Amino acid sequence: MGKSAAGKARKKFSYFDVLKNLFPWKGDPVREVIRKIIFLIAVIVFGVCAFLVFDYFYENYKNNQMNKEIQKNVPNLSELADLIDNDVTNKVSSTEMLSYMKEIIAQTGNNDIVGHIQIPDKNGDCSDTKVNYPIVQSSNEADRDYYLERNIYKQEARAGSIYLDYNCKLGALERSDNLVIYGHEMQDGSMFGNLSEYDHNYSFYENHPCIELSSRYDVSTYKIFGFFYADGGRGECDFYYTQTTEFENEKTFYDYVNQIKRRSLVLNEVDVKYGDELLILSTCSTDYFNDARFVVAARKLRDGEDKYSGTENNSRNPNPLMPLEWYKARGEKNTYVDDGFVPYG
């Protein structure tokens, strides 16, 4: 008898009751209305955040898959450089486009592609750095940061592309004294997202001391001589490393490279001499202060030079010059003293 009565008293499921429990309803006390409103706001905020996170990682996934398709046509640039250098009888003409570059331009339909960059380990593997990308350069001076949020198919993409500063030349017969290349710091390590490993991981530099850079016409190896943090330029900036792509004379060259040496987080035995061609990689950083940049600086390998010479006996710099904004973020004064500093040149 009790069980029968309990069965009759059991309330039937109703979607109407569910809605009444979720949404403010006529007759609800004020406290209950406030509780329901707060709950609904929390649900909406959670949903929006979940969508944004999913969209971010899904877009990165699509971008990575796109780049993997392109990388299938790209050779190991270090090996290609050796082949070109050793092909004495059939030397590739400096004005003849490399075959793999023709394939990439045809594959993407993008004539803004001016080269390719790889940062391999000593075995030629780029999986640690993930840097194995085409380099693009805007053909429109008025929109020189065109590829900041566009992929190489010119589609909108948060990851953007690896792109060359508009003022730089990377042609068959002309090359700037200082090539400046930009890329985003993506949280999944793609693009230039893993460059900060040079700071975070002590052995990273020794295992990845060189950059392979291909233009449309040739391949060059660059030896990393320093990496440092810099101001992005919105605050008080004391070193505009992106503004110099040509060196007027020996003084301007050494002024520039010694700014890097003072700031470098690593000490090594890589020498830098007037006449060396430079390569600068620049990415955003959120490690230490707002609007920061992490910068890797390298110089072109000289003829007959061992690519690893000078990089192996390295140590952390105990006294690097940090950006002005770095000191401000800590409420500290610039206490840098260059006692014992041995400049290039």
Number of helices: 9
- State the major sheet: 8 strands, mixed, barrel
Element-level helix/strand string: HHHHHEEEEHHEEHEEEEH
| Tally of DSSP β-strands | 10
> How much of the residues is beta strand, in percent?
15-25%
Helical/strand content category: alpha+beta
- The low-confidence runs, each spanning 5 or more residues with pLDDT under 50, are none
Strand order of the largest sheet: 1-2-3-4-8-9-6-5
Helix content: 25-40%
Rounded to the nearest angstrom, the distance between the terminal CA atoms is 102 Å
Task: Describe the structure in your own words.
- By secondary structure, this protein is of the alpha+beta class.
- Helices cover 31% and strands 17% of the residues.
- It contains 9 helices and 10 strands.
- The strands form 2 sheets. Strands 1-2-3-4-8-9-6-5 form an 8-stranded mixed barrel, surrounded by 4 helices.
Features:
8-stranded mixed beta barrel, alpha+beta, 31% helix, 345 residues, 10 strands, two-stranded antiparallel sheet
